[in-house]
Design goal:
The complex is a heterodimer of chains A (511) and B (976). Chain A has a domain of 209 residues: Alpha Horseshoe (Serine Threonine Protein Phosphatase 5, Tetratricopeptide repeat), CATH 1.25.40. Helices cover 50% and strands 3% of the residues of chain A. Chain A is built from 21 helices and 5 strands. In chain A, the strands form 2 sheets. A two-stranded antiparallel ribbon of chain A has the order 2-5. In chain A, a hairpin with a 7-residue loop joins strand 3 and strand 4. In chain A, helix 8 runs antiparallel to helix 10 and helix 18 packs antiparallel against helix 19. Chain B is mainly beta and 976 residues long. Chain B has 16 helices and 42 strands. In chain B, strand 8 and strand 9 form a beta hairpin. Classes of the chains: A mainly alpha (511), B mainly beta (976). Chains A and B meet through helix 1, strand 1, helix 2, helix 4 and helix 6 of A and strand 13, strand 15, strand 16, helix 14 and strand 20 of B.
């Protein structure tokens, strides 16, 4: 009897325990926050969220540019001057076989990564005001500067995509959860919109961060200037992109205006021209974050952001610099000599005995593969211990030298020959060369484009320079055909066409 | 058997039932029960285990994992043993695959539940794949967790077929259930020793050297190049261009260092004893299994303890604990090593086939280490309170396993940079299970068993992982950190470059709350009905769809007892029918969050970007894919109809089970919204149907009354399975994922291939339309390119012309077992076969596609030492122009599709029973049995490469699988 009474109580207790757990514990047990992702309710609450989101946009732009080395394959490899001894996919790019079935080419034909950055910027612009309301530490000024950067990055992505694909869908809202397929929009419309956006952003962007610039007071996100040097979009970054955008549209008066602003203000932005040795040092211009990188996306060694993939070095370097027998791409000796055809060029020139005067741009010049070694940031920028192929070079979209030469180009086209020569000579002088002489260097426009080729080699400019050059000259029937028929653009990848029925393949590639 | 249960009413099979691990009731002990005596009895009254598996026989095999032990033993189960390397992960599929197997993540999500003494074992979580560029291995020891089962400790094994039985285990059981019961505590004192030693035979292979490879490549150069070089930029590989280089052109004798004879041994000793009200069984064992190649090995130390106590008439206590330590020496393939390092060193010259060079390379490993250890413990403690027909139980179960992997590779192995990595991770499951059981024998005719309860389940998966490059020297092999708090470098790495140390912490939890009620009703021992009502709440389900209700109903009709009572030839005849629904838990907690933010700014080749400018970032999971709201539970509906037939006093037993299993409303990523940045959108609505038939026939072919005469029993099991994609989300008809096409109405494991019809001998042979020659993806086809069939007749070759053909998962899997007994001799022969499957010979495709797999720094260009082994039939492939940009030797064409069917004589065992002799000499002796066996005797197949079984879950035969060795063993089973 005792047993049984005890037993009944025990049973009751035992049944009660789960019952209580059901009502009180279940919800708690089942409502657990993921430790792997942040749900919607935990985002857009504080300025740490806006910082994470803004840095996320930068990170996404960086990812879009370096994915499969897109920046250099679009910009340098496609120009067809480099040669690839070992990679059939790169050979196909060089031969303009952009529908070949290589995974690299398929990936490079896909614009998704740019749209990821654009979507992140769209969400940011839609949600940032919530943080302003919730977090009193997040000032109006901070928000204004953040918005300007998001708009800048979004417009930059559109400009970059227009150069690659021509017409692309213009999407300026996140459409979160209610995505709809869009048609390709006329590229002129997109560029006009982007120009407005960039101008609006430029107005709100400071020359530098955390230096009490009138557009950005105090320490930006409580970090001092050394943290931000070179990493974020600044006023001159916007003008730099505007100048390129105008040049792409053949709006040379616009180029002149925008570059004029840059050349008048670069001191304020703590920019200056850089020496040839700084340009080519392993721990020089391309290493880490510097103000002189007018628009750059760093992979900083000190922050452990260096990586194996996503750097020019991955394509260009090989023995004797690193332990790799064949470079993915190289510039043959003849090409080097025809491009670097002027004496005293500190980047590359032959001395009187016919030997290279230095190994800045090209190492192992007389070997089977001259190694294009202008950019060689291996780990901490030392090339003495360079067996481990992890690179820390920054992706630089533009710098002062580029914009100076762009100005020269614009002035040359507009007929201001003196102005053009003056700007060209700034760079020639910087690289140890004599002032421009038509007898030696050919026509002015040729000389400017040749100078751009030498100065900006491996910086993702050459292909667009060629397009601009041939748009001006129209003297190469093959290239003219490319321009006229849209062959200067990349085809849309199969993946894109399969998922969005409103997209049409670019005319030129529709065969 | 029945007697045993009567004596120990609570020890029989207490943990068999997921709900109610206490008392065992045999509803009836006439007719069919005898034949199911080995079966765990308490699953439900509709359950069938008509022709049980004999774990005793399985314990004779020199295998280490549960998968291997069960491979050809039971219908409905398909095991993939893709390498002979001991202790590696193997996939099991019960009654087909429920989703397309695209990456290892899906194979983790399709594994059946293993239940050991009522504990649903926790499996590894696929989230660890997120941080590695190459998914060949999971980070950590990647040891097969089911190598923790010593068959000597197992009393019974059952692959559940009745839908209600399966559904009783809840959402974990969605891919099927395999139930293991350990041997239980016993009253009588018993000691058993089981042991074997074995030798795994070194395989004989044909080796090749640089001369062979050179000659192979030369034929392409002779045919397609005028100058010996296809283009000025084409480089002939250095290692082949110098025929005086003895490293490559000398003797190809690397096999002396690579292959060996492997030694195996195992010893398990157990003791059981006690008194009627308190008894135990304890077992300890050690197993060692050496692979035949690459110095691989697995060691297992195991212990198991079962306890039963009934201190008071109404109070019972049972407990079990099973502990294992698994130590694994892994292979040293370049691929796996580079995968671990995430770094591809210069690959221009492969490993040399010359033994002196190769052994020098191997000696570099001695400067480093690769230690893999897994500890695994599972146990439960169960209290039950019995009062007349009412029993209340409370059970606490834990399953915990942890893996450690510590690696150091010296500088000489990788571009003069050394590498260290350390992994620690665990999977943990804690279950608190309370239940009530009421056994109501209403009268002679009606019996009712009511059960109900609640289960709380906490799962945690975690790992800490760090790796570093460029340590200061080869003597500091650990990734040390600064321990001095006052040092400014506190907690920074001191042995390896701070910037080159990558650290990862990850943890994910999954909680499950379940309530259920189950009723079993029997009428006159002729009709049996089981009804299950269950509801589960998962923390991985979205808050709006947290709970999932799943019912089940099963019915069994004992025709022998009701209709054919007079039929003498008929010894058993059951008809079974059941249907049940089971929920499926999402493996990743991302899906519970809806739209979310994460750190996802990665790109190709760099999938672990820490941040931007040293700030952590948050963005939408663009690479992972869009996850919206409103994701419901996925679930499986099962329907099973079966017949058990016993004839001539069970001399011939037949069990037939036909099933339909519909896996519904599953999530799948659909490539979409690229213009919003997403790689894909996860959407629900993928339905996959598996239809099949499980057949088991067991016959006593010769069953002499005189035990001195030859007896022969023969058993065959066959699993027929077909899968079909029933629906995709949004009602779409097809979906391309990588190299796969999923098409509604087709199988989900089909290959999607171009049909190869030969070679264009000249440019003029390429068909022309309006003077334009046929193209492949926009590239004009030329002489030396393959003739690919223009399936859709649009005069160009694109993906549209690829067709779905073949299938990776076999349509028929089976085993055929024969046991002969003559006096004290026993002889067993066991066959395994898989029919109706194809595989893609990637190994040969890679050989021929040498142009795209030379040099560079791509994982595809990695050549293992086994590159110097001759495989396949070179003559069956046309000589295409390998430089062509159409990539003529792409693997996705039927040129490389081969029949993957095979038949294996898996084991031959000869034994001699010395029990009588032994009993006469030793008083307490029970048993002495000696045996010798040959395992993996031969394979018959038409496949041109190696063993077709070694193809992975995708059906691609990569050549990476290590040969499953032929093993000779001698063993003894001793009982005192």
């Amino acid at each position: 009897m005792i047993k049984s009474r005890f037993f009944k109580r025990f049973v009751a207790a035992l049944l009660l325990v789960p019952a209580i757990l059901v009502h009180q514990g279940c919800k708690k047990m089942l409502d657990i926050n993921s430790s792997r992702t942040v749900g919607e309710e935990n985002m857009w609450n504080s300025m740490e969220d806006t910082r994470a989101a803004l840095m996320g946009i930068y990170g996404l732009v960086r990812a879009a540019l370096v994915d499969n080395n897109a920046f250099w394959i679009y910009g340098d490899v496609r120009a067809g001057e480099f040669v690839s001894p070992s990679r059939p996919d790169l050979r196909a790019v060089i031969a303009n076989d952009l529908t070949s079935s290589y995974t690299t080419i398929e990936a490079l034909s896909n614009w998704r990564r740019f749209y990821a950055a654009i979507n992140a910027a769209n969400i940011f612009l839609e949600r940032v005001a919530e943080v302003r309301e919730k977090d009193r530490r997040y000032t109006e000024n901070n928000m204004t500067v953040d918005i300007a950067q998001a708009r800048f990055l979004r417009a930059f992505c559109y400009f970059y995509m227009v150069r690659i694909w021509g017409d692309v869908p213009l999407i300026i809202h996140s459409h979160d959860g209610k995505f709809e397929n869009k048609r390709r929009e006329n590229q002129d419309k997109i560029l006009a919109w982007a120009e407005e956006e960039l101008l609006a952003a430029a107005a709100d962007l400071p020359f530098r961060y955390s230096v009490n610039d009138e557009q950005q007071l105090g320490n930006y996100y409580n970090e001092d200037a050394s943290k931000w040097n070179g990493t974020l979009a600044r006023k001159l970054s916007a003008y730099g992109v505007l100048a390129h955008l105008a040049a792409w549209q053949r709006d040379y008066p616009g180029v002149a205006t925008y570059t004029d602003f840059i050349l008048k203000n670069f001191i304020r932005a703590a920019n200056n021209y850089i020496s040839t040795s700084h340009l080519t040092d392993a721990n020089g211009f391309f290493y880490g974050k510097l103000n002189n990188q007018l628009l750059g996306f760093p992979f900083e060694w000190e922050n452990a952001e260096q990586s194996f993939a996503g750097h020019l070095e991955e394509l260009t370097l090989a023995a004797p610099i690193i332990n790799k027998s064949t470079p993915d791409i190289y510039l043959p000796k003849d090409s080097i000599l025809s491009i670097f055809n002027e004496a005293k060029d500190e980047r590359f020139s032959l001395d009187t005995l016919g030997y290279p005067s230095n190994e800045r741009y090209f190492t192992n010049f007389n070997g089977k593969y001259p190694i294009f070694s202008k950019i060689k940031c291996i780990m901490e920028g030392s090339i003495t211990d360079a067996n481990f192929r992890t690179y820390s070079s920054t992706v630089v979209f533009t710098r002062l030298e580029d914009l100076t030469l762009l100005r020269a180009e614009a002035l040359a086209v507009l007929g201001d020959r003196n102005g053009a020569v003056e700007n060209l000579n700034v760079i020639r002088d910087l690289r140890g060369m004599e002032p421009y002489d038509e007898e030696l260097s050919g026509s002015l426009l040729e000389a400017i484009f040749r100078e751009r080729q030498r100065e900006l080699m491996g910086e993702g400019h050459r292909w667009y320079d060629l397009v601009r050059y041939h748009r001006i000259k129209r003297n190469d029937p093959e290239f003219r055909q490319l321009i006229d028929e849209g062959g200067i653009y990349w085809p849309l990848s199969k993946t894109l066409l399969a998922q969005n029925p409103l997209l049409e393949q670019t005319e030129y590639w529709r065969k | 058997m029945v007697v045993c249960i009567m004596t120990f009413p609570n020890t029989g099979y207490p943990a068999m039932d997921p709900f109610m691990p206490a008392t065992v009731f045999m509803m009836q002990d006439t007719s069919t029960v005898d034949s199911t005596a080995m079966a765990p009895a308490d699953s439900g009254w509709v359950t069938s285990d008509f022709i049980p598996i004999n774990p005793e026989r399985l314990s004779l095999s020199p295998v280490v994992s549960l998968q291997q032990a069960l491979k050809n033993e039971v219908s409905g189960l398909y095991v993939q043993e893709t390498t002979g390397e001991p202790g590696t992960v193997q996939n099991m599929f019960v009654r087909g695959i429920s989703m397309p197997l695209i990456s290892p993540r899906e194979t983790y999500q399709t594994q059946p539940l293993i239940v050991l003494d009522g504990i649903p074992l926790v499996a590894e979580h696929p989230f660890a794949y997120d941080i590695k560029l190459f998914d060949y291995n999971r980070i950590g020891p990647a040891t097969n967790l089911l190598a923790n089962i010593d068959m000597n400790n197992i009393e019974s094994v059952q692959v559940l077929k009745d839908p209600v039985d399966v559904a009783s285990y809840g959402p974990y059981a969605v891919n099927g259930v395999i139930v293991l019961q350990s041997k239980k505590a016993q009253k009588e004192t018993r000691i058993n020793v089981d042991s074997y030693i074995g030798l795994a035979q070194r395989p004989y292979v044909t080796t090749i050297n640089g001369a062979f490879e050179n000659a192979f490549r030369r034929q392409f150069y002779d045919r397609y190049t005028a100058t010996g070089s296809y283009s000025p930029d084409d480089v002939y590989p250095l290692y082949l261009s110098d025929s005086l280089n003895m490293d490559y052109y000398g003797p190809s004798n690397w096999t002396d260092s690579y292959y060996r004879n492997g030694l195996n041994h195992s010893i398990t000793a157990d003791i059981a004893g006690g008194i009627q009200l308190a008894n135990f069984r304890f077992s300890a064992g050690k197993l060692s299994n050496q692979g035949i190649a690459d110095d691989t090995r697995l060691d297992r130390y195991s212990a198991m303890f079962n306890l039963y106590m009934r201190p008071l008439k109404w109070l019972g206590f049972t407990a079990m604990i099973n502990g294992n330590r698994l130590i694994r020496d892994r292979n040293r393939t370049l691929r796996d090593r580079f995968g671990e390092m995430g770094y591809l060193p210069e690959l221009q010259s492969p490993l040399a086939p010359n033994n002196s060079v190769y052994s020098q390379y191997l000696s570099q490993f001695e400067k480093g280490f690769d230690n893999n250890a897994t500890n695994s413990v599972q146990g439960y403690a169960n209290l039950d309170f019995t009062f007349s027909s009412l029993t209340v139980s409370s059970k606490l179960s834990v399953d915990y396993n942890e893996g450690h992997r510590d690696i150091f590779y010296p500088r000489s192995l990788m571009d003069e940079v050394n590498f260290a990595s350390n992994y620690y991770g665990y999977n943990q499951r804690l279950i608190f299970d309370n239940s009530v059981r009421f056994d109501w024998r209403i009268n002679e005719r009606h019996s009712l068993l009511l059960r109900g309860g609640g289960i709380l389940n906490w799962d945690t998966y975690k790992y800490n992982y760090a790796y570093g490059y460029r340590g200061i020297n080869d003597f500091i092999k650990l990734n040390l950190i600064e321990a001095d708090r006052n040092n400014s470098n506190f907690l920074n790495p001191s042995g390896f470059a701070r910037q080159l140390v990558y650290k990862f912490l990850d943890r994910t939890r999954q909680n499950l709350v379940s309530f259920y009620g189950k009723a079993d009703y029997s009428f006159q021992n002729q009709y049996f009905v089981s009804l299950l009502l269950r509801t589960d709440g998962s923390s991985n389900a979205q808050p709006t769809n947290r709970w999932f209700f799943s019912p089940g109903l099963s019915f069994r009709w004992d025709l022998k007892n009701s209709v054919f009572t007079e039929a003498t030839t008929l010894s058993a005849f059951n008809f079974r029918l059941g249907a049940a629904r089971t929920g499926r838990i999402y493996a990743f907690d991302n899906f519970s969050q809806g739209p979310q933010y994460t750190s996802d700014i990665t790109y190709s080749g760099n999938i672990t970007v820490p941040g931007y400018n040293a700030f952590a970032v948050l963005s939408r999971p663009y690479n992972f894919g869009w996850v919206g709201y409103g994701i419901p539970w996925a679930y499986a509906d099962r329907l099973n109809a079966g017949i058990d037939l016993g004839l001539w006093n069970d001399r011939l037993n037949i069990a037939l089970d036909g099933y339909i299993r519909d896996d519904k409303d599953q999530l799948i990523g659909i490539p979409s919204y690229a213009e919003y940045g997403y790689s894909q959108s996860y959407e629900h609505g993928m339905n996959v149907r598996n239809v099949g038939l499980d057949v088991t026939v067991a016959a006593s072919v010769l069953k002499p009354t005189d035990p001195k005469k030859l007896a022969w029993t023969s058993a065959i099991n066959l699993s027929f399975n077909q899968n079909r994609l029933q629906a995709l989300p949004r009602g779409i008809d097809q979906l391309v994922i990588g190299d796969r096409l999923l098409k509604v109405g087709e199988r989900i494991d089909r290959y999607w291939l171009l049909l190869n019809e030969g070679i264009y001998a000249a440019d003029e042979d390429v068909p022309q339309v309006n003077g334009v020659r046929r193209t492949f993806n926009g590239i004009t086809l030329r002489a030396g390119d393959p003739i690919w069939h223009d399936t859709n007749g649009d005069e160009i070759i694109t993906d549209e012309d690829r067709v779905l053909t073949g299938n990776a998962i076999p349509k028929i899997v089976g085993g055929f077992d024969n046991q002969f007994q003559f006096e004290n001799w026993t002889l067993g022969a066991n066959f395994h076969f898989q029919l109706g499957r194809k595989l893609l010979n990637q190994q040969m495709a890679s050989r021929f596609d040498f142009v795209n797999r030379e040099g560079g720094t791509s994982i595809d260009a990695v050549k293992e030492i086994t590159y110097w082994e001759k495989h396949g039939d070179y003559d069956q492939y046309p000589l295409y122009n390998p430089w062509s940009t159409v990539i003529p030797y792409r693997v996705e064409q039927d040129l490389f599709l081969e029949d993957g069917a095979f038949l294996k004589l898996r084991s031959v065992t000869l034994g001699y029973d010395l029990s009588d002799w032994f009993g006469k000499r030793v008083k307490s002796a029970q048993r002495l049995y000696l045996y010798g066996s040959v395992f993996n005797v031969f394979t018959i197949s038409s496949f041109s490469g190696g063993d077709p079984e070694l193809a992975g879950y995708t059906g691609y035969y990569s050549g990476y699988g290590m040969t499953i060795p032929r093993t000779f063993t001698l063993g003894v089973k001793l009982g005192l």
